[in-house]
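Complex 633.
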Amino acid sequence: MITKYTHGSPINTEAVTASLEACSVSEFPFEHRVENGKFIFSFEMKKSDILYGLGEAPRGINKRGWLYESYCSDDPFHTETKHSLYAAHNFILLGGDKPFGLYIDFPARIRWDLGYSKENLAEITLDGSDFDIYYITGNTPREIVREFRGIIGKSYLPPLWAFGYQQSRWSYHNAEVVDSIIKGYDDAEIPLDCVYLDIDYMDSYKDFTINGEAFPNFAEYVKDKKAQGIRLIPIIDAGVKKEDGYRIYEEGKEKGFFCKKADGSDFEAGVWPGVCSFPDFLDPEARRWFGEQYKCLIDCGIEGFWNDMNEPALFYSADGISKALDKAAALKGENLDLGKFFNLKDTFMGLSNAQDDYSSIYHNIDGEMINHQRVHNLYGASMTKAAGEYFIKEHGEGKILMFSRASFIGAHRCGGIWFGDNHSWWSHILLNLKMLPSANMCGFLYCGADLGGFNENATRDLVLRFLALGVFTPLMRNHSALGTRDQEAFRFENVKDFRDIIEVRYRLIPYLYKTFVEAREKNDMLFRPLSFDYPDDKLARECETQLMLGEECMIAPVYEQNAGGRAVYLPEDMTLIKLSGTRVEKQELTKGLHYVEVALNEVPLFVKKGKKIPLCSPARRTRDLDLENLEYI
Ligand code: GLC
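Predicted structure with alpha-D-glucopyranose bound:
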């Protein structure tokens, strides 16, 4: 059952598609108050309760014991000390004797103290008091998730080829380099479906332009790659370069489609191209206009995009730089003591994504100038909608690949997400695994992390283990940052191991795609914590390193350096299947703890009794998969 509570005059976030009769907050079943304009509420937790949710966020599947913030943040250091990442997914779910879910439909900052200040108390503070809260009850956590998903609309459906293996890097600078990547994969006989074009494919980082020297005859080139079975996926950034004569900039400016400052002038800040204006995706007309711009690339044969820097990321503003320089000039020649030095350092470090800059942005919402801080978390989601709504209108569902960095519930209907700039760290295999069920609860089914890790140098074994998790994530993309070591599968010693892992993905595509489509249809999750399925089993309840997948199986990737396997907990008797290329090895295991050996070229999968998993033969492209002839394990 779902009850909606409304307070004040909430901004329409478009997150919820169902219209429910609202009750007054005076009937809200939790202790609450408004203090300094902020709505604060709290509830007690039993020691044994698990608190799930918050989608893409730091820390565990069980969110208890930490302080989180819903505030979309461009932060490439995903350490345990962080409170927020790129998304704001305001859904939590308490699993216990009396399970319930809460969705806070509110687009500004929310602070979630989930047992951080007091072990058994959750206290949630909204940076405002105009909101809708949905209180959802049901018999089980899974039922509550389905109820919730039922009011936010069906998740985005990607094309089947988007389940193929994808290779990215910042950047493949020109057509020759892209060709060499495809050749590298083809020579190594490793499957591949997509190659990504990061910011350098553009002319001076201008959205919807092509660097003609790097990619002469772009449309021909895209067609040629498609004939080879490879899709090129360009990036689109939120900021639009300020440049006279650049059509998108001139049109946006003339039509008044950019975000404003209090004095009505366009808000400007630096990103990759230097000074940019920012489309006001919250204004329906501006959103429609930006969505239509993707057409020029679709006309060239492009069938997929990734939207980036849409928290929005702001490197600096002219105002911020000028104040920092004034401060530095005033201190010139001074003896800088502890306080003065660190203050100066922090001033420069704080130039990017500065709160002062966010506070100076205004959006046009139904003709009213609304300060950005009131709607911060809608910006990236609205960019995804600009693109996704246009794609669905023009091409129908399941045709164009779209995923984004920043997100808010609602955008899950128009695209997927990737988990942003992770690191080539062993700990990030687990961090990324933990986000999968949480993101699924919030409607984001098409998701995945930068496999191999984005920042820093990856090692061969790390990439293999990361890929072995990626075999199961709908988005299976290897991506890495500028200046890092080459990370494509064919670059490493003994490429056969990589072929063995990636071929397993292609063998599983019929199963994964079907499971995905069913989860979408039933408003269900693709990945579940073990505690959802085995609520009375203590080890299952505490398990944060394994996930249930579909109705049939459980995954347990290896996530430690130099490990030849891992400890796995089986909540019931299962068959361990080790998959490697076309090899399938089976072993019956009983309920309980086991140490399972997993070679670097193997993908372990645990299948429940009485269940079967279809496998097709591997192929070098998804288009070559024979989806009719399946063998069952
Ligand atoms: C951001 C993105 C990353 C991309 C880079 C350059 O850091 O998160 O994926 O490669 O920008 O465009």
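The first strand starts at residue 2 and ends at 7.
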